[in-house]
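Re-run with default settings, no changes from the original entry. Doing this only to confirm the output is reproducible before filing.
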Amino acid sequence: MAVYEGWFQRNCPNSWTSAREAAAVMPGGLQHSLPPSAPFPVQMARTSGAFAWDVDGNQYTDFIQAGGASVLGANHPVVREAVTDLLTSCAPSTCFPHEAEIQLAQFVQDSVPSVERFRMLGSGTEAVMAAIRVARAFTGAAHIIKAGGAYHGWSDQLVFGLGAPGTAGAAAGGIPNPVLSLTHEVLPNDVGALRATLSQCAADGGTAAVLLEPLGPQSGTMPVEEGYAAQVRDLCDEFGALLVFDEVVSAFRLGMAGVQGHLGVRPDLTVFGKCIAGSYPGAGGLGGRADVMSVVTPGHTGTVAMLGGTLSAGPLSSVAGLACLMEMRRTDAPAAASRAGDLLCARLTELITKFELPFLVYNVGSIVHLDTSGLFRLRRDKPDYAEQFKLRRAQNRDIAMACAAEGVMISQTGRMFTCAAMTSDVIDDAVHRFEKVFAAAAAQ
């Protein structure tokens, strides 16, 4: 690690200066948690397709891809041109209706079978907040249930059971306990635990919604078993709860119909984000059954669930999202990105075997997970849980830092996103860089 830290000191002096300036004005000196932050955050100056360049001119293969928002590749010219054309004639936000927001809603409705009505929002976090409010207004129930370890944004009621199952309110600083009293977590894949929790909530007014990432918590970092989503669907029907799919990451990235299109499971509500705005700001949305979504309509006969936002459905985010999704469909970008993910996973598996490392790599299409520490498989009931969690998280950070020094940007959890711009040559080059990191790890 000393060698890799030295690389940053020698090759990233401008990033080091920026990091010191950021520390003086930002809490922790950071706004973003996905990219490597040790020994200091690297400031990017330019991105294009599969690559990013920092302020010192160093080039990286970008497996962050805006946290999964870029399926076409970073700063795609088709999307950029659509945004540029808009800005020559219209402000990015106007609070007036714009034709692109209607066309985007029509595109989502045509692509995702469960979506009969669609509402644009400002972020994935806002969209999850909206889903809960809509579910409570429609059902009249108050309790919500999620899978332990899943991340559904940072709203008060969902900063619960983050990072790993069983963590409850460990990350809920500043949130009063009563706010979390209606949120419950169950272990992923544990259908019996979900039934038991639904039964308990039924005795106290019922469950409004069960929130589920259809791949499993953290975009499949903790995968769910085949058939699990269908079992959750059946339990929701039995107990009168709405099933909410959080497809902020997976929608359109894994296919134009989302993961639900592959599973054949129809949720009542679907949360969108990321590429719904073409990796531009204002990336959030909520879609679902017409009767459920009707509760947000002014003049609704029952209690109205108020949703809003000055920047929601602005011309910029709507135009960017529409241009991105149309280009993705035209070029079948999800399939190209998935082929890159398959190739990356296969090649990394070969390296793990070659160096006899206790690592694990797997993918669902263009979402690739490199697990080098078992952090998310750590059981909370182990007596040394706290110590192990800290050590394993530090190992993840070290691996991400080493990869960055070799020219590959991955998240600090090991999650990677491939894009359609990642040809076999791009993957080959990246694997060569991974090999240097794996060889260094094997030598310890």
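The radius of gyration is 22 Å. The longest helix spans residues 333-355.
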